[in-house]
Write a structure and sequence with these properties.
2 domains; five-stranded mixed sheet; binds iron/sulfur cluster; binds FE2/S2 (inorganic) cluster
């Protein structure tokens, strides 16, 4: 009972040995982000509800593992995040994400602005480790202003939530099971060209990797001058 009451009263918890304040209803990741503390994550974005799908944000709370984007902050929690064990697990999950899709960073328009690539850098990933799947995925260039390169989709679901919650359009969904899970486009043809998608949609600029791209904007910012080229993602907590 006392734990339930504590959870409703804003207070502090300890993250890697330092106190972090939290407010009503905040998760550990929300409170840490507001305090400028980095917990690696991919499928969470401060504008949208948590999905808890990528598990990169997994921390230990009083010794038990949990996704920090979904675990409510509570008084007195002892949260471990930046430990060799947790970072090693994150690196393994990132390597799995890389081999599951086709990620060729040097030729990707999103290189330097990609959160998957930037997170892999700070987790010390130097290679894929696992055998590459090389899946057969499509590029959808049917829309006049936007394109989808599904080779890079990590199924984080952020475009689904942005299109539903911010754009009120439901252009995207995730379908299939297991290894066949994939991104779906809500249109008669199943392609972007006859969907309601627009370049001004919130979902047009939410993808953490290089799937959802604006046409005719390729390499507008030179490689080497992009968001995560200049500062690691761990030093840009809460920045869009
Ligand atoms: Fe996430 Fe991008 Fe795939 Fe959408 S297209 S699920 S935002 S990786
Ligand atoms: Fe928490 Fe993806 S950010 S599970």
């Amino acid at each position: 009972m006392s734990n339930r009451i504590d959870a409703l009263i804003p207070g502090t918890f300890v993250l890697d040995g330092e106190e972090v304040e939290f407010g009503h209803g905040e998760t550990i990741l929300q409170a840490a982000t507001r305090a400028g503390r980095y917990i690696p994550h991919l499928c969470w974005h401060p504008e949208f509800g948590a999905a808890g799908s990528c598990r990169i944000c997994t921390v230990k709370v009083n010794g038990r593992s949990g996704a920090s984007c979904t675990v409510q902050a509570a008084c007195g929690q002892d949260v471990e995040s930046n430990t060799p064990e947790l970072n090693s697990q994150r690196k393994t999950m990132l390597q799995m994400l890389f081999v599951e899709g086709n990620h060729f960073c040097p030729s990707c328009e999103k290189s330097g602005n990609c959160r998957l690539q930037a997170t892999a850098y700070v987790m010390g990933m130097e290679g894929p480790h696992f055998e590459e799947f090389y899946p057969d995925r499509k590029v959808d260039a049917t829309h006049p202003d936007m394109m989808l390169d599904l080779n890079r989709c990590i199924l984080c679901g952020l475009c689904v939530r942005a299109s539903e919650q911010a754009d009120r359009k439901n252009v995207f969904a995730i379908g299939g099971h297991g290894i066949n899970t994939h991104l779906l486009v809500n249109s008669e043809s199943g392609t972007l060209g006859d969907s309601q998608f627009a370049a001004t949609d919130r979902a047009a600029d939410i993808c953490p990797t290089g799937v959802i791209l604006h046409k005719r904007r390729g390499f507008a910012t030179p490689i080497g001058q992009r968001q995560f080229d200049t500062k690691p993602i761990s030093d840009q907590v809460g920045e869009p």
